[in-house]
Amino acid sequence: MKTVFALAFLGTSALAAEVTPVEKVLELMNSMLEKGKKEKHEEEVQFSAYKQFCDDVSVEKTQAIEDANGKITVLKADIEKAAATISKLTKEVAELEEDISTWNGDIKPQPQSVTKRRQTMTRLTPTIPSLLMLWNGHFRS
Asked: What are the pLDDT digits (tens) for 90-119?
């Protein structure tokens, strides 16, 4: 009995040592399955990180675009206001230049009229005292 038991033990250990081709295929498929699951998990983690990065950048860029559009609106309003101011000031400058040319026209003839007045006054100055005497004499008598 001891020999049967020893042979049985040796037979089972020999069977255990030998792996059938189906068992080897199953073993390889299981290892491939584990490797695939591991790689899938790593890709999911990597994709999740990349997706989060893309979402963050998308939010930042959307906010930056909205801010820039707001600034564009403000700057367009400033440009329109400046254009209106330029138009108004251009009209005022034209009016002031017209006034200046009018004043320059008024100033130029004045020296002649002042000269004429001065000549008239110079001519009449000696006669004023004599006229006053006549006047006083006429009303005194």
From this structure: 999 999 999 888 887 766 655 566 677 777
- Cα–Cα distance measured from residue 102 to residue 50, given in angstroms and rounded to the nearest whole number: 76
Q: How far apart are CA 31 and CA 37, in angstroms?
A: 10
Say yes or no: 16 and 53 in one domain: yes
99 and 136 belong to one structural domain: no
Predicted model pTM:
0.44
126 shares a domain with 85: no
CA–CA gap between residue 19 and residue 141 (Å, rounded) = 169
Alpha-carbon distances, residue 98 vs 18, 30, 113 (angstroms): 117, 100, 23
Q: Domain range spanning residue 140?
A: 114-141
Can you read off the two tokens belonging to residue 89? 């000031």
Residues 98 and 120 in one domain: no
Measured over the CA atoms of residue 97, residue 99, residue 105 and residue 106, the dihedral's sign is: negative
Is the distance from CB of 48 to CB of 56 less than 8 angstroms? no
Nearest to 122 by CA among 114, 111, 134, 112: 114
Domain count, the chain: 2
